[in-house]
Amino acid sequence: MVANTSLWPLRLQVKCEVRARIPMNNGGEIFIHLYSNNIDNKEHLAIVFGELIRSRSLDAPREDDTEWSRMVRGAYSGRLYPGRTVSSSPLPHSDSPATPSSSNQLPLDSIPLVRIHSECYTGETAWSARCDCGEQLDEAARLMALEGAGVVVYLRQEGRGIGLAEKLKAYNLQDLGNDTVTANLLLRHPADARSYGLATAILQDLGLSTIRLLTNNPIKVAAVEGPNKEVKVAERVPMVPLAWKGLKGGVTGKELDEYLKTKINRMGHLLPEPNH
Ligand SMILES: Nc1nc2c(ncn2[C@@H]2O[C@H](COP(=O)(O)OP(=O)(O)OP(=O)(O)O)[C@@H](O)[C@H]2O)c(=O)[nH]1
């Protein structure tokens, strides 16, 4: 079974292929969901905090399902432990902590935090100080861990959708004196080539019809809601760079300040500039 959303003119289908529990250093846990879809061949992800947000397409019975295949793809309730044989209603086991069953849901009055994050190899893996992507991913995760619930939808839209190779060319054009928008345009790309229909479909698959969205980007808010308000953004939560809040541990530098100022001045981002 797949989650269908009719985001005209596209008919998006997403299916959660596999899910796994990932313990973290701080004692918390996240669940990585890997999605397939009928729009591109990329592996988009949902990083889910807490056990109460579940994928409908993952849990739905599939042709040729067995107890074993359900456990291997992550469609089980409770915890896996050596020797477990059934995917649902785990029998009490001395080594397995008591956990909620798959029938549990988020309380109605809790609106989960969501971050729609676009892939950024340079910021997340190579610790680039040209952007705040790595910091934003960390900060979103920190806030969701504090609340015990939330989702980072991790879209494989590197370089605002132009891909890593083109983004690296854009960086060279930036060093030649162009801002991040002009650099894209000089390469004959749009300033922002991303779309968010898959994010909307993933949120629907996770049963999230109302969210609080971590972003400064007004286009992202409107786009993720979908043409028929398939998802409602009840609140936009700003992502202010740590350095702009006078806090330590964030990205700093001339390149970052120019990148953020261009987002404010040319892309309409809702981010108050620092007073310094
Ligand atoms: N083309 C291009 N892409 C960049 C540049 N710097 C970062 N990116 C990409 O921009 C994307 C980051 O976007 P997001 O973190 O979703 O940020 P946003 O849409 O600008 O808005 P926020 O939600 O407020 O963070 C990632 O795909 C990065 O790879 C750049 O200079 N040029």
From TrEMBL:
<dbReference type="InterPro" id="IPR032677">
    <property type="entry name" value="GTP_cyclohydro_II"/>
</dbReference>
<dbReference type="GO" id="GO:0009231">
    <property type="term" value="P:riboflavin biosynthetic process"/>
</dbReference>
<feature type="domain" description="GTP cyclohydrolase II">
    <location>
        <begin position="112"/>
        <end position="238"/>
    </location>
</feature>
<dbReference type="InterPro" id="IPR000926">
    <property type="entry name" value="RibA"/>
</dbReference>
<comment type="similarity">
    <text>Belongs to the GTP cyclohydrolase II family.</text>
</comment>
<keyword id="KW-0378">Hydrolase</keyword>
<keyword id="KW-0547">Nucleotide-binding</keyword>
<comment type="pathway">
    <text>Cofactor biosynthesis; riboflavin biosynthesis.</text>
</comment>
<keyword id="KW-0342">GTP-binding</keyword>
<dbReference type="GO" id="GO:0005525">
    <property type="term" value="F:GTP binding"/>
</dbReference>
<feature type="compositionally biased region" description="Polar residues">
    <location>
        <begin position="85"/>
        <end position="106"/>
    </location>
</feature>
<keyword id="KW-0686">Riboflavin biosynthesis</keyword>
<dbReference type="GO" id="GO:0003935">
    <property type="term" value="F:GTP cyclohydrolase II activity"/>
</dbReference>
<feature type="region of interest" description="Disordered">
    <location>
        <begin position="81"/>
        <end position="106"/>
    </location>
</feature>
<protein>
    <recommendedName>
        <fullName>GTP cyclohydrolase II</fullName>
        <ecNumber>3.5.4.25</ecNumber>
    </recommendedName>
</protein>
<dbReference type="Pfam" id="PF00925">
    <property type="entry name" value="GTP_cyclohydro2"/>
</dbReference>
<dbReference type="InterPro" id="IPR036144">
    <property type="entry name" value="RibA-like_sf"/>
</dbReference>
